[in-house]
Structures are given as C-alpha cells and as structure tokens.
Amino acid sequence: GTGADNDLYINQAIVFIEDAIQYRSINHRVDSKSLWLYRWYYSRTCQWILSLTITVILALAFIEKPSSLTVTSDVRYRLPAWNPPCGLTESIELLCFLVFMVDVSVKSYLIGWEEFWKNKWLMAYILTLIVSLADWIVSLSFFCTEDVRIRRLLRPFFLLQNSSMMKKTLKSINSTLPEMASVVLLLAVHLSLFTMFAMLLFARTKDGQQDKEWMGYFRNLPDSLTSLLVLLTTANNPDVMIPAYSKNRAYSIFFILFTVLGNLFLMNLLTAIIYNQFRGYLLKSVQSSLFRRRLGIRAAFEVLSSMKETPANAQQSYASVGALLQVLQKVEMDSRCKQAIMRSLKMCSCDQLSAAQFQKLFEELDKDAIKQHPPSPEYQSHFMQKMQYAFGHPYFGYLGNVVALANIVSICVVLVMDADKQPSERDDFFLGAINCFFILYYMLEMLLKILAMGLKRYLSYPSNRFDGLLTVILLVLEIATFSVYGFPHPGWRPEFMGLLSLWDMVRLVNMLIVFRFLRIIPNMKFMSLVVTTLLDLVKNLRAFAGILVVVFYAFAITGIMLFKGAVVPLGNIRYIGNKLNTSWPFFNLLLYFKEKCDFMALFGHFQAEVMYCLLYLLSVNLICRWAKIYFVAWWLISSVIWVNLFVALLLENFIHKWDRRCHREPLSDIEYQRTVELMFRDVLEEPTEEELMEKLHQHPHLQLCR
C-alpha cells in the first residue's frame, strides 16, 4: 500500500544520504531487506569487528614462527623465542577467514551479480581468500613445518581492500607511474654512465698500493653499480671516495658531479613531477568523490519526490519537508551538520523543496568543521573581573613560557655541571629543589587560567589540555618522590626504594618538563602553521599510512622467507675479543662489523629492525648479488616513490594552509578542521543536472518515475 511504499522511500533516502556522507557508491540493492542488511553492514559495530579482524590477522606475524616475542633483538643475548604450537595461530586465522567470507558474501549480494562482475576488487578479494585457504590447508597437512607461506604475503590485501580512500590513493599512484618511470629511467642512465666512467677512471694498475679504490668499490660492473647506487642514497658518503681522494684530490670532482646531478637535480626533479602529476590524479579522485556525494543527495531527493503525499507537478519535482525531517531523525551523520540542516528547514517557510533547494541544504557537509570555544565565565565581583582580565591576558601565557624556558635552562646547567660526576658524588638537592619550585608554579598557573577562562573553555584548547595533563602528571610524580624519598636537602642521595631510584624519578620529571616546553608552539605563528600541517597529515592521510604499512609488511614477510638463516651469528663477541687479546679500538671495530653481520639474522624475525636493515645491508655490501634486487626494489618503492609522494602531499597541505592564512586571519575563538576532500574544494567542479540524472537512470536496482 501507500504507507509501505512511503516507508521504503524514507529508508532509501536515509541510505542514500549516508552514502553521500561517506562518499560511497549508491549502486546497491534498494529493497527493504537489502537496505536493512546494508545499514547493518556499515554500522559501527560491524565495521569495528571487520577492522579488528584485519588487525588480528596482520598481527599474527609477530607470534608465528619465527616469533618476535623477545625482550631484546640482539642475537647474542636474546633467549629462544616462544613459538606457538601447531594449530593455535591457524585456528585464529581460520576465524578471520570466516569473517572475511561473510564480508565478501554480503558485499557481493548487496551490489548484485551484474555489478559484481565489474568489480575487480571483489573478484581479487575472493581469489585471495581461495589461495589463502588452500595454503592454510597445505600448512596443516605439513604440521606447520613449511617455511614458505603464501597467505602471509596476501594478508595486507585485506587492509587495502577495506578502505575506499586507500583504493583511490593506489589508483592515483598507479596513474602517476608512467611519468615517474621517465625520471627513473633518466636516473638509471645517469647511474650507468657514471658507472662506466668510474670503471675507466679507477681501473686496476700495476701498483697494488694505489688500487684501493678499485679493490674496495669498483672491482667489477656489479660492484661499481652498487657503490654508486648506494652513493645516490648518501649511505656510503664519503667512504666511497676516500681512497681515491687520498691518492689525488682531483678525483673528488667525479664524486661531486655524480652527487650534484643525481641528488640535487634528478631526485628533486622526480619530486616535482610526482607532486604535479599525483596532485592532478588525486584531484580527479576527489572530484569523483564529490560526484558520488551529489549523486547520493540527488537520489535521496528523487525517492522522496516519488512519495504519494507529494503533489505531482509536470514541470518540476518536489520533496516534502516533513519527509526530509523524518529522514534526518534516522540518518547517521555529524550532529553539527544535522542541526544546521534542521535550522535551515525551520527557517524555510515552504512545505516543499525543489532539487536545487534540497541540494543546497546538504552543502553543509562540504563546509569546514568549525569548533567554537565556550565563553568565559562572567563574574559579578570587580576584584574577580580584574583577576580574570589579568590571568586571561596573552601576556600571562607569555610569562609562563619564559618561566618554562628558565626551567629548561636550569636543568641544562645542572646536567652540564654533573656530567662527569659519578652517581655516588651527585647531589640531587639543587635539581630536586628547582623542580619543586617550577612544578608548583605550573600548578598555580593552571589553576589561575581555569579561574579566568572557566574549566570548559580551558579544556577546549588542545594546548591547554596538553599543558594541564603534563602539569598534573608532574605533580603526581613529585608527590610520589617526596613520599618515598622525603623532601630535598643538601646531600640528598637516599638508597634505592620502591620501583624507581631517586635519580630515575628526577630524570623522568625532567624529561616531562622538557616535553612540556612544546607549549610555546601555539604562540609562534609560523611554527604553529608547520605543526598543524603535520597534525592534519596524521589525521587525514590515513590512507597513505595504510599503504605504507602494506608495503612494509609485504617486504618484511618477503625478507623473512628469502633471508631466514642466511647468516649464522658468530656468537658472543666478547669471547672473540678476549681470544684475540686486542686493544679496545680494534675490539670496537670488530664489534661494529660483527653487528652488521648479525643484522642478517634479524630476517628470522618480524620486528622493526627487519625493516631498518633493508638498505643498511646494501650499504655495507654483505649480501649476494641476486639479493641486491630485493633491496633496490625496496629503495625504489619506499624511498624514491613513497617518500616523494609524502613530500608532495606535505607541500600541498602546507601551501593550502598558507594561502588560507594569508586570505583569512582565523578568529581566536574558532578553529577550522579540514579534510583531504575539503583541501581541494575550491578547485572542484560541480556536476551538472544532466550528468546526475543520466547516472541515476543507469542505476541497476533503482527505478525512477521520470
């Protein structure tokens, strides 16, 4: 009946608006049961379960054989790691696979079979699950003794396919590769030419004493190419030129030319090309996101205009304000946007909305998120008003910065004076006394600011929350120190008591005091601009961090499989030193190269040091020639391409903020929060009416009345 149809239209409008808010595609089933399933799938609970499952399956690599559950990473001193019994991690993995199978089944059903065959990500999702399950079965059949596990390499795909922004970013990177390849090819030509020059310049001679450069770095073509490639990363600079420079200073011209052309020109040219091309492709991606938002809003309007209670009009369609209010009450969206839209509806005197009016209402979604600080309390007492004016004035904050600087200087003076003293000779009285004085001032400053601004307004500023939290922690630590070791006095060196010694407690307090000095950043406009740019990157560019995790994870797993057991640790270096009975300088040199060799054994583990030694091993030339391909690939992807992409987005974000700062001076009580989509909002083009309607008529599951 009419009531059931109207309920369906309301539910469809709710889902379409939620799709628009999240920049999701509207090409999914729109019947009542499918809409319920769709909202359930995209609910916070389901998405949280899916995110937790992805986190768990990625984290399994830390406890699977070879396990990383050791206190130290030093192969000389660490105890044998705990390896889980066969079937434990496999059972957890199976549960994760079951969640993923439910995920891909729901997604496939909701978009329909026609759209499923067009969706390459879903087909790759199913293929990844099939291969992973087959590898899981093989693993159990071998009782978990096999070294190569294909499914571990495929795990990052689950993270990748779950984020639409990561997919767009990956697509933008893929589109940028042809332009990047031209510069990489030029870089390869540069490297090859200078390699040939080096082999001719540092060729072997009859005098063996003069052939140190040839012997160490340019003995053959692979060694020459490797030496200059590492020089391009500056990892072996200036070691690679020292033998030749010792023979003749003029040889330095060769290395200077190579470094200037490679590092200063070609690498920066690559950054410029990546910035220009990637920004363009990312802009196209954000443009498609805007189109999805406008399409979702227009789809909601079309279904609401199809309701029976809406009067038919041959010229133009209208949506009922009452129906829209019902939709807004049920839709999941930011409370700020919802309240702004409802205020606009109440101010509107009409009962019907045209398509243009409907679309204009939801432009609130595109605006900056504005955070307005609560007002200060109003005191009746004249004395309290004077207090509020004095302690709420910016100069009071500047005074606090000066006091914090004085605290830092006093700590530096004490550390310099006590640098060469033995722990038994150190007197902690002076440092403990000045810390006590400054912490009391910080506490007084915080209380006076709360008195002047009010608690809500004080806590609304991130800098105040940072300052207040550290002040409270410092006060708690100081009280704990006094309760255990008493008050400071000359010769204050009590015996160790409790969990931490007195010196440990004092050091912890001093580290927090130094960290607290960062409170000066909001008072320095240019520094504040840089810091807010970095914070915005952290908050808004999670997709880039996700792809970086995917790259690190894949290379780390590959390194474990390729290099596990490649180098056996030599044992405890102290016994080698005692046996050789050498001097300390030689002992330290031997330890230096011993630790380089031990890095290879770290490929048996999955912690961060695995990722750290990827290029490090290449620089000291401790790996076989074929293994260099792995490290060069890592350098190209992580350093050459990915770091330049990050620099490109850092520049874009900084330039955007700089332009906004020049054109609009922010008010003291307002903070503007921007997203990646809003960053390009000024240069995006609005889709036309014809484009929206054409796309709506192509919807596989929605039949419009017109």
Automatic annotation (TrEMBL):
It holds the Pfam family Ion_trans. GO terms for cellular component: late endosome membrane; lysosomal membrane; monoatomic ion channel complex. The keyword Nucleotide-binding does not apply. Keywords: Calcium, Calcium channel, Calcium transport, Endosome, Glycoprotein, Ion channel, Ion transport, Lysosome, Membrane, Repeat, Transmembrane, Transmembrane helix, Transport, Voltage-gated channel. The chain crosses the membrane at residues 45-63, 92-110, 122-143, 180-203, 251-275, 395-417, 429-448, 469-488, 500-521, 541-563, 600-623, 629-651. It catalyses: Ca(2+)(in) = Ca(2+)(out); Na(+)(in) = Na(+)(out). The keyword Ion transport applies. It is a multi-pass membrane protein. InterPro entries: Ion_trans_dom, TPC2, Volt_channel_dom_sf. GO terms for molecular function: calcium channel activity; intracellularly phosphatidylinositol-3,5-bisphosphate-gated monatomic cation channel activity; ligand-gated sodium channel activity; voltage-gated channel activity. SUPFAM superfamilies: Voltage-gated potassium channels. Residues 53-278, 397-654 form the Ion transport domain. It is found in: Late endosome membrane; Lysosome membrane. GO terms for biological process: calcium-mediated signaling; endocytosis involved in viral entry into host cell. Belongs to the calcium channel alpha-1 subunit (TC 1.A.1.11) family. Two pore calcium channel subfamily. This is Two pore channel protein 2.
